[in-house]
Design goal:
- With 72 residues, the protein is mainly alpha-helical.
- It has three helices and two strands, in the order H-E-H-H-E.
- It is elongated.
């Protein structure tokens, strides 16, 4: 029986940006919350503009103010 060789180069996943790193620990907020926010962000304001369109349906946007500890 022949043993399998492991490749010398390990496959590494690309590094995550901070917004991707905390994506699962951020709370989803609606446009109403973004409008009331004391520190508006670009992502939230873009979501508010999108929701102003007639008939727009949204599921919320992750809020950077609610992020928890990231995963290693």
């Amino acid at each position: 029986m022949a043993a399998k060789k492991k490749s010398s180069k390990a496959k590494h996943a690309p590094k995550k940006t901070p917004s991707e790193k905390y994506a699962f620990t951020q709370k989803m907020v609606t446009s109403e919350t973004c409008i009331k926010c004391s520190t508006p962000c670009a992502r939230g304001m873009a979501y508010v503009e999108k929701m102003k369109e007639p008939g727009a349906v949204g599921k919320g946007v992750p809020c950077h103010l609610t992020k928890g500890k990231g995963f290693k």
